[in-house]
Amino acid sequence: MYGFAPERLMNLLIKDNIVIWDVNDTHDGYSFFIGRKNLIGLKPYLKKTNMKFKILTRIGFPYLIKQNRKRVTFIIGCIGFMCAVYTLSLFVWEVRIVGEDHLVANELLKRIEEQYVPLGTFKSKVDCVELEEKLRKDYDEISWISCELKGTGLTVYLEEGIKPKTKPSKDVTGDLVATKNAKITKMITRQGTPVAKVNDKVKKGDILISGTINIYDDNHEVMDTSYVAADGDVYGKTSYDYDDYVDMDYYEKEYYDKEKKHITLYFMDYCLTPFIPTINAANYDTFTQIHKFKIFNDLYLPVGYKVTKRLPYTLKLSSHTEQEATDILNDRLAKKIKQFEENGLEIVKNDVKIEKADNKLVAKGKIVVIEPITTLVKKPKTDKKKVKKKKNK
Amino acid sequence: MEFPKDVLYGDVLLRLFGNREALIENYKGLLLYTSEEIVITCKKMTLRITGEELRVHYFSGCDMKVTGNIHTITYTPNGELCC
Questions:
Q1: What does the pLDDT read at residue A381?
Q2: In B, which residues are within 8 Å of A10 by CB distance?
Q3: Which CATH class is domain A2-57?
Q4: What is the DSSP letter of A380?
Q5: Which residue has the higher pLDDT, A272 or A380?
Q6: Counting C-beta atoms within 10 Å of the first and last residue's C-beta, which end of chain B has fewer, N or C?
Q7: Domain spans of chain A?
């Protein structure tokens, strides 16, 4: 644009929220970009400020088509491309999970992709509410779940809670039996008849709380018997054998050459690798990174490329120092103990000792823990029996 | 409760990225625009940016981005501008 008052024109545009960008000062005026619709409405402002404008270039898809209207194949290609993008945008090509913590993302993804929404499902066939309900049924840990279908991606947002304890139904009867050999340290009976008591040594399979309740009369004779699902908490002291070792000699990877890369193009399940560089090595590590093509942010397409890196290496024999091997064993033991604690086990005693044997460093010993030791063994359903003994006196 | 000062006093907000970019908010209009000097009017004062190859990257009703090699930024009370 050029003329009398360019700044005034810009101020008017600012006032009326007409966006222009890339404003450049040229020797005879200013050049800038403006939207096509705004350009049509620019005339009153130009008249008011006594300015004139000249269109230098037109950029955009409609202009591109207009310029290339004689190139039929190009236009057919453009239309074909648009049709392909539109067709592909009707399917789900990406499933993402946001907010998972303990649940393994892969497991949940696998479940969704294999059973509910396989990649390539019609978007119109995906019912988010139904999917939410199904996932909630499958995973009790999920406290809140929301599925969102945006572009060609299905995003599952979830929050995890604590898995609710399943209460046995009233129709079920059974005894609580020991799951392992233990010495009982704590016992709470909520329902049923306690058979064992604290400090008792029990074996695997022993009944701890019986589901049979006998009601005695004044003469200590059984007057009535009812069958319930035994319920209670029984904690026992159990021991776990711990055995681990580290070889003093080990093989170490020594990378000796530059990585070799190659690119694979893929469309759905079809792959095409134009060139694979030769690699003269018996051993090599392979890393593959998948890049999915997407339009804008959410329009994922089943097309992309994979970059594969191959790193050749030789195996070199090395040996740990005693301190290194001890550290490794201690780390592994600490992980095991942490795992126990995460599962609600209380560590009472840990007498694992590290000793050297042959060309190994061995950690051996027992870990004594306090843990719940019960499981409900269901009995076949029986009607409530009432045994009444008539006194024959 | 404390109100932001720019809302209370109608101050101009200026964010600088080194001397390459300046993001200006709460401005009123443009007084002068050349590749060496850009003068912007704000509610209470006038902002004068001098430098080389200055360019308005974009502007809208609420903010403006100036790019280029910025040398100086000067605040002048409204009406006292002297080029």
A1: 58
A2: 29-30, 33, 59
A3: alpha beta
A4: P
A5: A272
A6: N
A7: 2-57, 94-160, 170-247+323-388, 251-319
